[in-house]
């Protein structure tokens, strides 16, 4: 959940009923529209200076001009929702086509099924895995690497959250309780024959949904839940993001980041935390790194290093594509998760009913953290084990991955080589019929590395 973008801002005096960010969205749209002619001219000029028939394209000056024009065009572009780009996967050495189909649809979310078209079904069990993507600014395609890693061994489903500015106002509000309702509905749609994996932000609503289903005796609760880098208890190893929320207070965010969607978007007049403000936060938290990356792109374009330039484009096409969040969901999450710590304190509620994680007894639990995570500090996700004493020891596990940050918990080479196989083994262990009085799952001590939370 991106809440750390205003760390260097001067704290504004509280003014009852005043929203300082009210006109920001309209100003952003006006600025974007005003830049359209310049962006079009820059793109046309870039093509002119990149044309091999143009003698200037082969000169240092021509290459520099073309590189500068591309940087300008990319800096002022509106980035669309990326494609999944997963046309096939490899299962048992066989190339299998993948078809992405929505199987459950609500105004703010679709559940996508990554259906694999087998010629010969694999012998190895293929457990159903529901991956709950973060609703924290980026699209679900940010988990492309996560999905790709599990496709060979699992029947994968992913929550595809909607951009709030595309949801008409008449569809109603969307708060944290609605998020939990969606998850419960999805688990019931799966008939209890699934495992759920929550990446970062959804760790809290997933735990809430499972706890409520267990408390109600719902037979369709998932078989296991895997929480990765999630803010279950942000009092543990608080990061700069966590501390900012406590220091500023909820009124600061309500007055400084909430605005209304302007016409002609379908969600006109819906109060949101807009994507462009979130992007400002993402960029300023590591501004020096992004400036260096764009300077490197400029050098690669001049040098003709097409491979490095294309890698930059692919990463930032994904990173710069952001979506608006419904204001109710954002503010409730900031207040109840980061400020009041309602879940670990036992004061969290869902539709007026208490949410107690100690009600979880039949759903296996695994947590994953990154040693260098600067978003969800070490111990914040692991705290789930303390809050879920009812889960048997042989049905719980924890893994602290050395040498990775927040992004590396769910993507990258270490995730593919060290984290994903452990998750797959844990899920598979919950599929095997259990012998009475005999543990067959991986224990928490068996999966924990030598580096433990301090």
UniProtKB/TrEMBL annotation:
Residue intervals of the PHB de-polymerase C-terminal domain: 229-429
Domain of life: Bacteria
A Pfam family recorded for this sequence: PHB_depo_C
Listed InterPro entries: AB_hydrolase_fold, PHA/PHB_synthase, PHB_depo_C, PHB_depoly_PhaZ
SUPFAM superfamilies tied to this protein: alpha/beta-Hydrolases
PANTHER family, A to Z: BLR0908 PROTEIN, POLY(3-HYDROXYALKANOATE) POLYMERASE SUBUNIT PHAC
Name of the featured protein: Poly(3-hydroxybutyrate) depolymerase
Organism the protein comes from: Aquabacter spiritensis
């Amino acid at each position: 959940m991106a809440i750390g973008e205003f760390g260097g801002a001067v704290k504004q005096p509280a003014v009852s009923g005043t929203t300082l960010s009210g006109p920001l969205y309209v100003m952003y749209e006006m600025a974007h529209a005003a830049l359209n002619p310049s962006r079009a001219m820059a793109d046309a000029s870039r093509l002119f200076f990149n044309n091999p028939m143009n003698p200037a394209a082969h000169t240092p000056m021509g290459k520099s001009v073309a590189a500068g024009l591309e940087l300008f065009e990319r800096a002022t572009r509106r980035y669309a929702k990326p494609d999944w780009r997963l046309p096939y996967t490899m299962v048992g050495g066989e190339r299998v086509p993948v078809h992405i189909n929505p199987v459950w649809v609500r105004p703010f979310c679709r559940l996508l099924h990554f259906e694999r078209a087998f010629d010969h079904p694999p012998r190895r069990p293929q457990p159903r895995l529901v991956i709950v993507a973060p609703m924290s600014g980026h699209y679900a395609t940010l988990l492309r690497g996560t999905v790709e890693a599990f496709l060979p061994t699992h029947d994968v489903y992913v929550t595809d959250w909607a951009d709030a500015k595309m949801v008409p106002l008449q569809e109603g509000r969307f708060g944290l309780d609605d998020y939990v309702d969606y998850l419960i509905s999805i688990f019931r749609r799966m008939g209890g024959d699934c495992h759920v994996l929550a990446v970062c932000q959804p760790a809290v609503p997933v735990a809430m949904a499972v706890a409520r289903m267990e408390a109600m005796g719902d037979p369709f609760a998932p078989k296991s839940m895997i929480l990765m880098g999630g803010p279950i208890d942000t009092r543990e190893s608080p990061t700069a993001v966590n501390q900012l929320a406590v220091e500023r207070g909820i009124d600061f965010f309500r007055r400084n980041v909430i605005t209304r969607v302007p016409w002609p978007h379908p969600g006109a007049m819906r109060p949101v935390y807009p994507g462009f403000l979130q992007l400002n936060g993402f960029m300023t938290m590591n501004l020096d790194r992004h400036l260096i990356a764009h300077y490197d792109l400029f050098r690669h374009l001049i040098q003709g290093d097409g491979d490095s330039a294309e890698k930059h484009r692919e990463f930032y096409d994904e990173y710069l594509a952001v979506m608006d969040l419904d204001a109710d969901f954002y503010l409730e999450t900031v207040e109840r998760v980061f400020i009041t710590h309602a879940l670990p304190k036992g004061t969290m509620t869902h539709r007026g009913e208490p949410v107690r994680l100690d009600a979880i007894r039949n759903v296996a639990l695994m947590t994953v953290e990154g040693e260098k995570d600067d978003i969800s500090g070490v111990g914040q996700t692991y705290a789930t084990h303390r809050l879920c004493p009812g889960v048997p020891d042989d049905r719980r596990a924890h893994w602290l991955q050395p040498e990775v940050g927040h992004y590396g918990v769910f993507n990258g080479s270490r995730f593919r080589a060290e984290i994903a196989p452990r998750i797959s083994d844990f899920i598979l262990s919950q599929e095997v019929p259990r012998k009475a009085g005999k543990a067959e799952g991986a224990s928490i001590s068996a999966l924990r590395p030598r580096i433990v939370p301090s």
